[in-house]
Amino acid sequence: MVTQRRTGLEEWRHAQRGAAPFFKALASSRRILIAGMGGGFDVFCGLPLYFALKAEGKAVFLANYSFTSLPYVPRPRLAQAVFEVTPDLLVTPGEYFPEYWLSRWLRTQGEPDTVYAFRKVGAAPLNTAYKALVRHLQVDTVLLVDGGTDSLMRGDEVDLGTPMKTPPAWSR
């Protein structure tokens, strides 16, 4: 008896037949924005979802709440606080600009290479920027990803920080 070996993508699709509730909840989504919510490199934590959802035939876009001063990006086109970042920007090697370096890497992978960056602003302008991007991309689902633990906070903490940055009070 000859057994045909499945490719990685076929294995993943086969496993999704009994999909986790998270993926079942996204079954009707067609256009998805994955956005890093904590700044820095949080958007990178969304890459496994990006590739998994694209393998399901969904249109997926990437964005990030940026800690970069964004001096390289031309005037915003969508809203005051959201910028298109592409590999064509002139950035100094080694410069802190996670969205730019991700856009360059996406190009090397043959993927769409635009990553959207949200300027560090208050809640109202950020909300306006998200709404503008959602309209522009015509997304029906927004997924926020966080690479640390600050999104799990309750609001009564003394300070922000992850376990690697701030030792717990009991260890001091």
Automatic annotation (TrEMBL):
Record-annotated membrane-spanning stretches: 32-53
Recorded superkingdom: Bacteria
Key words, A-Z: Membrane, Transmembrane, Transmembrane helix
Protein name: DUF1152 domain-containing protein
Taxonomy of the source species: Bacteria, Thermotogati, Deinococcota, Deinococci, Deinococcales
